[in-house]
């Protein structure tokens, strides 16, 4: 309530300044596909420093004093459109931007005078346009936005070929991954080797590593905001690909031309076919595959109202004959209603359903045992963008989520003659209110300040336990339906400042506090489908992180080369770890196995990026440290977190030789993860057991790898005669390309794991390194028409 | 167990393209520690205390034995049993007539190498096996072999059944000897899930053939012992999907490694069909 009040007083005080001003607003779309353009820049020739940027729905709004203006609409890779307006009333101007002609013929993206990175207060933000990453070589040729993100500074891969990632020292469960605003609880397929995101259906990805805007909350370390394509609203289009691991097909078409469209995209793997070739006869009856299905539709009811419906379904399925099955996956759906209340006020209401579950089945018919777990959310959001004037853009909104956690759902077939109780279901309600303001002061200073208030309440029905030192239950309390069990509140300020030093450089600083009320319980060093989410409770306190960051941004060569240096310091509270020997799977008292402590992370991130021209790419370097201190682990001393890596280097280069040939390459190097190795051994029950002295006191060997790729495009244009019998070049309807790539070109045997065991012949202990993926060539055929 | 089993299959697919290699990893040398294996039971002659020392990782596996120690077990009624070093095997301490009673708390006190190590263990009830047999999968009852199609039907497995009493808090371990040789796998379970039910399963990993003579001990133990063996099995390895490794949770003082258990057991022997 206090916050709403604050928002209103802010609005009132700001209103005093506006007099005789008018607003130009509208939607920006791609002229060929009708897709909304996110982040297009609107500038006013007559008023330097004034401008607007389209939001995620392509909407912009700019309020200026009465007058005549020249308005430029720009987006990288598109032709700049200039219009003249006489602003003596509010103007609605919807516009379509065309792909620049040069791009078609020479594959050279026009170098725009953007310099966007210098102007916003955003720092610690990585944007990836899905189109731009097409040619980056990846494992098995599977385009994967999560893996491409790992090549950016401050983002670390969770392991060889893994789609999991760590941001600025945070755990892999501290990333809020949103697909069309719906949280995706387990973003990986096949034990993390592939992400659940089918690039064909995606449009835009934004990763906030630093101070995320106040509209986001619920995770400590980062927000990955992924937007699906809307679908072509001009004509029927199809695209697809055939690769080593999977095949993909996407169809998109208008529902009513220029009013609505849909897209449906599917992907299925054939890893199960690999098992057939395996030497192991016992695997003959085995099946293993995953699939993804993305669908989205949007319709413009009026020029003020628009409806979006999007959904994702993805599952991994493993089975062995009829007797054993294991499947897991996510289901999300989002329904949104955009409404333009006034040229200055844009609103969006969202209803989201999100679910992750896994089921292990043993046996068949009435003799079947099923073990399952799931998390399910119903989520309602209302967000507003209020373009008060050219100096203030306000965002405010509210959000309420109902979570249901089912840690263990056990079904025993009736023939088996016994029953086992489920692990109790937990319910909670997470709610938030936020307000933020983008504030321009003069030409050189931009501020963003915001506040997010959140509440997390665990509600009945259910039981809570109190535990003694050894983890035995000492007290049980029972709660009725909807009765409050425990509640937590959090106030998260967000602050960003950008001082533009000159045309080429700027200085930024930021602070944010984040709360996380849901915790991933996983005792394994790798992500597994059986990891479960648990709510904050009387035992598990919310995790809290504070981050301060400072950055210097400098552009070279007319903004075609960007350089940034950012530093950060982060402190964590209520970091979760496990008692030694914790039993995590199907344990009703799992909370007794947890230990809590504090953490700290700090680092320096450098990025040099060339965005346009024949030759594009980036070099990134991260120097960082991440440590935890938890009572009961490592004698209570600080220890390196497993994701602590001192150095992390990525080089990504792409070269367009001509319109038919594109070369790409990447090279990564990082310090080995902190790991626990034995420092001694002893004998118990006639067996040799490793003895450990400190947590994560050793390092895995340093990791490095080079990948190369070539994309060969079939001819993109053809020459036809026009009416006057003149030869003209037109774009071919059917476009296709072959992508050849090699993962780990020089066959570096990077250690995936190191195991200590006794050699049966010599009787001595030795360390055995397991390396996955030595040299993996792959080939993919892609098409669209 | 099933989780591991499923992953193994998935991983196998990937291992087709992976490789293993022995490498040189320099390791620190931990200070030598006393290792206690104090196993006591209700079966006469099946109680012993073994005292050894830990060593560095890359030395051989001939662990130093500790002689001349004092080993005393005291029950809750104050009756002392002094375990004496065996005349033939160094570091092995015995009290031949020692027997663990039901629902009794025992204190162990060791003085070795100038250090005093203590531990406490509590016995509960004597379990009983309802059924134990070894036979090819094809001959085992269908309801008990769900999910075993991964194995060849002629594979011989050891199947067990025992009944858990209704109150929660019981912990079990099975130790198997095949033709007199101890099976090195650990079979442990508790009744946090399925309390009061009949427990059944297969001793995966026990490699048996027709006509093998199998001796089995089903024993109950306290929570501290369950935690010790659970963490010994799950946390001491360093494989790709293993938990962050740590030392098993010991119930001994003075940073000693090992355990002290007061077990009650049911034993039986049979011949594999």
Automatic annotation (TrEMBL), chain A:
<keyword id="KW-0998">Cell outer membrane</keyword>
<dbReference type="InterPro" id="IPR012910">
    <property type="entry name" value="Plug_dom"/>
</dbReference>
<keyword id="KW-0675">Receptor</keyword>
<feature type="signal peptide">
    <location>
        <begin position="1"/>
        <end position="18"/>
    </location>
</feature>
<dbReference type="Pfam" id="PF07715">
    <property type="entry name" value="Plug"/>
</dbReference>
<feature type="domain" description="TonB-dependent receptor-like beta-barrel">
    <location>
        <begin position="269"/>
        <end position="744"/>
    </location>
</feature>
<feature type="domain" description="TonB-dependent receptor plug">
    <location>
        <begin position="125"/>
        <end position="219"/>
    </location>
</feature>
<comment type="similarity">
    <text>Belongs to the TonB-dependent receptor family.</text>
</comment>
<keyword id="KW-0798">TonB box</keyword>
<dbReference type="InterPro" id="IPR037066">
    <property type="entry name" value="Plug_dom_sf"/>
</dbReference>
<keyword id="KW-0732">Signal</keyword>
<dbReference type="Pfam" id="PF13715">
    <property type="entry name" value="CarbopepD_reg_2"/>
</dbReference>
<dbReference type="InterPro" id="IPR039426">
    <property type="entry name" value="TonB-dep_rcpt-like"/>
</dbReference>
<dbReference type="GO" id="GO:0044718">
    <property type="term" value="P:siderophore transmembrane transport"/>
</dbReference>
<keyword id="KW-0813">Transport</keyword>
<dbReference type="InterPro" id="IPR000531">
    <property type="entry name" value="Beta-barrel_TonB"/>
</dbReference>
<keyword id="KW-0472">Membrane</keyword>
<dbReference type="GO" id="GO:0015344">
    <property type="term" value="F:siderophore uptake transmembrane transporter activity"/>
</dbReference>
<protein>
    <recommendedName>
        <fullName>TonB-dependent receptor</fullName>
    </recommendedName>
</protein>
<dbReference type="GO" id="GO:0009279">
    <property type="term" value="C:cell outer membrane"/>
</dbReference>
<dbReference type="InterPro" id="IPR036942">
    <property type="entry name" value="Beta-barrel_TonB_sf"/>
</dbReference>
<dbReference type="InterPro" id="IPR008969">
    <property type="entry name" value="CarboxyPept-like_regulatory"/>
</dbReference>
TrEMBL record, chain B:
<dbReference type="InterPro" id="IPR025345">
    <property type="entry name" value="DUF4249"/>
</dbReference>
<dbReference type="Pfam" id="PF14054">
    <property type="entry name" value="DUF4249"/>
</dbReference>
<protein>
    <recommendedName>
        <fullName>DUF4249 domain-containing protein</fullName>
    </recommendedName>
</protein>
